[in-house]
Amino acid sequence: MNELNYNKAYLIRFKRIENLGYLKTKIFPQFNSILNEDDFKHLAIAEDKNGRDVMVLFVEQTKAKAFINICSIKKLIIEYPRDITNDLIYNNIKEKVILKMMEKSSEFKPAFDTFFRKHLTVDIVLEKISKSGMDSLTEIEREILNEQ
């Protein structure tokens, strides 16, 4: 697997698209011109309580911007994508759909784990310990501490 530059994590909310044929023939080919097969391993997508797709995209900024641009042109996005990098790093995520994507049983957990391994620092983990205690640490946060 090539080394990825995970500069940011973007939260993208999509409109509900009923026409799957349109997606497959008009939209997906354009995505494939931006995101390679490996990039697709670094995103998470799930349906929110309103039946709309929510995506967390972990790719380098140039690819994310191109992907978001296509989605905007095709009017697929409900609201402008939001950078949630710091919310993830500092554990400030409140949205249930994202928390569910991060669970151990989720097929998307590896994408989140890779992101955390690239962004978490000992200082961030120590800050979390001072606020919430050792019991609040995730497996990856414990790994970061043990590496030091």
Q: What does this protein structure show overall?
A:
With 148 residues, the chain is α+β, with helices and mostly antiparallel strands. It has helices at residues 20-32, 61-73, 85-89, 96-101, 109-119, 122-132, 139-147, and strands at 10-14, 43-47, 53-57, 77-83. Strand 2 (43-47) and strand 3 (53-57) form a beta hairpin. The chain starts with 9 loop residues before the first strand and ends with a helix. The mean pLDDT is 85.
Q: What radius of gyration results from the CA coordinates?
A: 16 Å
* N- and C-termini, Cα separation: 25 Å
Largest sheet: 4 strands, antiparallel
- What is the percent of helical residues? 40-55%
The helix-strand sequence is: EHEEHEHHHHH
Query: How many helical stretches?
Result: 7
Percentage of β-strand residues: 5-15%
Number of domains: 1
DSSP strand count: 4
- The assigned structural class equals alpha+beta
Low-confidence runs of at least 5 consecutive residues: none
Jot down its keywords.
single chain, 4 strands
Q: How do the helices and strands line up, and which of them pair or pack?
A:
Elements: E1 10-14, H1 20-32, E2 43-47, E3 53-57, H2 61-73, E4 77-83, H3 85-89, H4 96-101, H5 109-119, H6 122-132, H7 139-147
Antiparallel strand pairs: 1-3, 1-4, 2-3
What's a concise summary of this model?
This protein has one domain. It has 7 helices and 4 strands; from the N terminus they run βαββαβααααα.
